Amino acid sequence: MPNLPRSIWVFGKQIAFNLQQANPTLQNNSYLGSNPNNTWVKNQIVLHVTAGNNPATSSINHWTTTPAGAQFIVEREEHRLNPDQSYSDVVQAVEDSRLEAGVLHATAPQHSIGIEIANLGSQYNRDSDIPADVDANSLFHMTQRYDNCGPWWYQPFQEGQYRALILLLRALCITFPIPRVFLGSNGDAMETLRTYGTRHPYIDTRGRRRCRFNVDSTISNFQGFLSHCNITCYKACGGPALNRNRLYRGITDEWWLPVDIDESERGYYTGPFSADRDLFYVDGFFAEPTPFNRSDMEAIQQTKSYFNLNGVDSYFHHVEGNQGGYFPIGRNGCWHGGVHFIPSESKPRVYAAASGTIVAARIGTIPELEDDIPNQFGSPRFVLIRHAVYLDTHEVQLGGPTEQRLNYSNPPLIVFSLYMHLAAFPVDGEGNTIDDGHAEFENHPEIPEWYKIWRNTHSEDISSGQVFNPEIEVMVGDHLGSCGRWYRQSRCLHFEIISGEEIDLPLELLLSGSEVQTLVTEDNSFYATDFQSEEGRACDRASQSNQYDQLRNHVCHHRSEWAVYESDLITIRSQLGRSAFQPIYENIQRLVWYHRARRVWSNERSTNPLAEELLNNLPGDGRVWHYHPITFMCSVNNQLRELQGDFAGGHMGQAGSATDLAHTAVREVGVVRDGDVTLETRCSFEFSV
Asked: What are the CA-CA distances from residue 273 to residues 90, 241, 250, 473, 585 (Å)?
């Protein structure tokens, strides 16, 4: 079988993944199955906790005398071999060639992979049990019993452990056909903690009280991620303190809407998260920061998608029905590489459309930026995020017929998402901007976490609209800011997706009978109306007659509207006349960012390895490929759904709830030899009571 990848593309960049090999590794008799060297299709991952904070060697030594419960152990941060590593160590208990052996404590041992996380689990039963030197705010308090999870205080998982789990889960899903969906993706937090099965007490032949637990077939057939508490009646492993929402948003490759255009609430805690910050913010639940011990169960456990493939028509209609901001040509005849989202006044928040790294931004916290001259073009504030996208496919055989799957062995495609016209930061009751140094800055829920994290290590003044490179990692759905104004009226987000190299979108899975229409300009014109091809003239006619539904499958290569040179402004002045030109000139000068971002990256080349990549990703002449954002997001999400089973929104229905196996394989019956626990079928456990 293939080895796990030792570098992972996540957050729009490549991160080294250093697995630690156990020494010695566990042997065959530590695993289940009459022939542990068989090749089994792995399609389920079971999460456990070690019930202790000791190093991984403790668990491995225990497994030399009893069947192993997992192939991997995620260490505590304090046990890292390299203290400078941003994630906790992951110890692989077996050799790569043994990863497909069966493990104890699984619904289908030969088809499951086990991960133990160093954690105490339920730490204290009563408030009075918590020692005086332990901060209760850092513990998760479940106030009522649910199945195996009692009303206890649970130890939190560490920042480094979450980062390690994200890398490990992504690596396993690349290597094995494991969908990136969690049990409970239909929005019911309790489903993530529910135990699926029935107890059957009896007296054995030696007069001992025993109990056989039969796991429900719906959970044994589930493909994706679940916890030990779901499959046995006496464990709270992977229980309520595990922030599944964070793991899900860290490992998924889905694209979500950058704003809310309906009445739905994003009821999860937004990041990015930091070891220095233990407060959470959530839309629809709390207006104030919340410590971990009072965090909401739904917010922590939610693993549903915020893009519905069944509702794509409404997304298109939203961006095609606004007064301006159309793709790919504006009513003024200029290229317009994105679309406008107009959210309601009550939901102005802007979210990362996919996981990536913020590589350029302009915040400029002075509200007068919108008001000092006639505002025809909206706020100049923006965030630019770099993403890695997999669209290439190849044929694989997974214990059944040959299938088309995404090809993760090839380098991903690099794209950027732009969030333009962001609002200024809020002001206090006296009209003072809430920024670094203000008493309300750290705990204000409308100041995005990414900016607070950046401000903790940077003191430079950016209030006058300077472009800078935060290089902060964000997950899909993380809070970026709020929509600013457009024409001084509606809330508006200009959203676009661009790349330096052309990307071949798989529209055949999305738009029946559609083919990509490519429009390429041979010059650096700021205007789009001088088309030389029939395709271009047809595009122009559709734009002028408001038939924007005919332009959804267009991919355009032209100069970015944010990459305007002085020479472009001279051309505009000659066409408009000097008197009408001055306010437009001042607006454009404030709005352009493309060449300013490249200048920032160029200045960082000697100290920042990513800067060189960014300069190569986006060409110096400003000519980039533009994609209809809705079409692009649909294409990516549709690939995930059709080829990987990874998508948690749309046609999959209640994703995460007992998906049937794609291939039914013969599963051997494993018998534990120490007599305490017997795996009588693929989904039955027997234990003493």
From this structure: 20, 15, 11, 9, 40
Residues in the chain, pLDDT under 50: 1, 34-38, 278-279, 281-288, 372-374, 509-513, 650-689
55 prior amide bond cis, ω within 30: no
Alpha carbon distances (Å) from 433 to 444, 468, 480? 12, 20, 18
Q: What are phi and psi of 574, to 5 degrees?
A: -65, -30
**Domains in the chain, CATH or no CATH each:** 7-250+648-688 (3.40.80.10), 253-644 (no CATH)
Strand order in the sheet with 197-203: 197-203, 209-215, 684-688
- Residue 36, classed as helix, strand or coil, is coil
What pairing do the DSSP bridges indicate for beta strands 209-215 and 684-688?
A: antiparallel
- Yes or no: say if 361 and 417 are a contact pair by the CB < 8 Å rule: no
Query: Nearest-5° angle of CA 314, CA 316, CA 322?
Result: 100
**How far is residue 339's CA from residue 322's CA, in Å, rounded to a whole number?**
9
For 52-109, how does the pLDDT look when each residue is reduced to its tens digit (9 = 90+)? 899 988 888 887 777 777 889 999 999 998 888 989 999 988 776 666 555 655 556 6
Q: Which two tokens stand for residue 29?
A: 């008799």
Q: Tokens in use for 8?
A: 């992972």
Q: What does the pLDDT read at residue 366?
A: 58
Return phi, psi of residue 615, to 5°: -65, -30
As a whole number of angstroms, the distance between CA 197 and CA 200 comes to: 10
- Judge whether 279 and 297 are in contact, CB under 8 Å: no
Helices (H), 64-182: 159-175
Q: How far apart are CA 433 and CA 86, in angstroms?
A: 33
The answer to whether the CB of 277 falls within 8 A of the CB of 220 is: no
Chain position carrying tokens 């008197």: 579
Predicted local distance difference test score (pLDDT) of residue 268: 84
pLDDT at 677: 29
Query: Which of 250, 252, 251, 268 shows the shortest CA–CA distance to 260?
Result: 268
DSSP string, 258-297: SS--SS----SB----BTTB-EE-BTTT-SS-EEGGG--H
The confidence score (pLDDT) of residue 275 equals 62
The number of residues making up the chain comes to: 689
Cα Rg for the chain, rounded, in angstroms?
Answer: 27
Q: Are 319 and 630 in contact (CB under 8 A)?
A: yes
The amino acid present at 163, given as its one-letter code, is R
> By the 8 A CB rule, do 68 and 31 touch?
yes
Q: Tens of pLDDT along 534-586?
A: 666 667 677 666 777 778 888 888 889 898 776 666 666 666 555 555 556 66
